[in-house]
Amino acid sequence: VVLCNSNPATIMTDQAMADEIYLEPLTVETVKRIIKKEKPDSILAGLGGQTGLTLAMQLDKEGFLQAQGVRLLGTDAAAISRAEDRELFKEAMAEIGQPVIASDIAETVDQALAVAEKIGYPVIVRPAFTLGGAGGGAASSPDELKIIAGTGLDASPITQILVEKAIFGWKEIEFETMRDGVGNVIAVCSMENLDPVGVHTGDSIVVAPTQTLANREFQMLRSAALDIISALEIEGGCNVQFALNPDSYEYAVIEVNPRVSRSSALASKATGYPIAKVAAKVALGYTLDEIPNAVTGKTTACFEPTIDYCVLKIPRLPFDKFTTASRTLGTQMKATGEVMAIANSFEGALMKAIRSLELNVRALKLDKLEGLYTDEIEDLLVQVTDERLFVVAEALRRGFSPQKINHITKMDIWFLDGFQRIIDMENELSRCKGEPDMDTLKRAKEMCFADSYIGTLCGMTQAQVKALRERYGIIPSFKMVDTCAAEFDAETPYYYSTYDGENEAVDNGSGKKKVLVLGSGPIRIGQGIEFDYCSVHSVWAFRRMGYETIIINNNPETVSTDFDVADKLYFEPLTAEDVQNIVELEKPWGAVVQFGGQTAIKLAKALTEMDVQILGTSADGV
Questions:
Q1: Is 41 left (phi over 0), alpha (psi -120 to 50) or beta?
Q2: Cα distance between residue 622 and residue 616, in whole Å
Q3: 198 Cβ contact list (under 8 Å, min separation 6)
Q4: Is the pLDDT of residue 487 over 90?
Q5: How far apart are CA 162 and CA 164, in angstroms?
């Protein structure tokens, strides 16, 4: 295996990861030189995102791969073109009767204006072959379109943009799918954006599995996704995005990514189905029924994952560093990273995810919104920003009905009802004025309210809430991610916390000393993927030395949250309270905080107070 990448912070550019590693720029010239020197049989393009895909396509187009006798593994060049080239994609969808949004291709600004005139404003500009929606945007007038079309044409490597009718307010639904060379297809995971169409999926809050679809809608879109990847003859992982009219069964295909994408990492961690690993084996010619499921050890990769919990992803946006930047979210991605949370309910996953963001926020509450007048809150609801989640919660506190908020934001009533239940719980706790009764406290913990927040609402300290909870016997239990809704026993120790009784995280009886490694949380400015690189290496070193390793982290994009890196993985917020729950269950011999960046170091003092020895530099030294 020969690997080429220019990023020193990733684990893939480590000597241990491939036979030959080239730390070189990802350009056509460099890759040509490497191919001539290494003489590989084949090239795998679909796992390096848009960069890898575009490079392979350029080499194929020039005839270089054919001349060198190198074949493209997985999805072939013609299929990639049909999915990526906006014009060919429209034709392919028309052939199989899949609806697309009214749109047309433009290669100049004047052509773009003519298209918009024909289909009507507002329009969305989507450049061909770019990453994260770069160069795209929405325009509601010819003047706006001139600017956005110009930017989009500059951003596209083939100077081509798609100008499409904007269907703001429709639901955005994604399916992560997998197909092999003989035509077996499965839907690995369905996902639904909280924000309607118009916000890039990388900047959207995403819930898996879909929550608001009727069975008929779900089956209609799932069948469409599988028909599309079959018609395009994708081999490997593929992401299909749909827009669904909330008031009818009308839908449209937004786009198809014929590669693993941002959503693939999320879908892998949400289901425990290793999409990239399976895609690599499919590229070599294996069929899905020949690839064992690593989680159950009994089923194969053609078993469609079933999940009996709720997963929520929230993007980590950089506005805490760029205080004067525009907070508006649109079709161009602004997030630097993301967090994921797993719980038994939507409300629980939401409360966990907010704690994981590391924005010094414990709940659906931003202090700065409390001082605003109600009409100012109503004005803010119209704006799509990173703080909209908190604005919605504040509006509910002011007595806005979910119906009214739905009318303004187009967020589904189902989600807004979930927000309302959280606000109702806050009110109930505030009325306790002292110790809440057992039932109230249990319901608050089932919604994953933090002890410290319950204390603030009831007028108690965090320690008092914890003591009361333990007196009532309300303690966390840990459930296993098993890909099959507990139909088969899982062999992978990958856990999330709930408050519903049975605990599945049992001691494996190895008798080894346990070492806890704290991860680094979401990628943000100043805290990047290199901390994850260090955490993974420390885990490998401890495992080699015969220790049992435990990782706590909440970032679905990292290697540390792969279920086979440590002996046990806990997908939880990195706060003192959430970490203490795991410490009390696992009783680790020591903990490592020096590899998880600022996130882990901040927990050093708390760990010392829990009587966990800090391995390496002490808390005082830090």
A1: alpha
A2: 10
A3: 124, 138, 166, 168, 330, 331, 384
A4: no
A5: 6
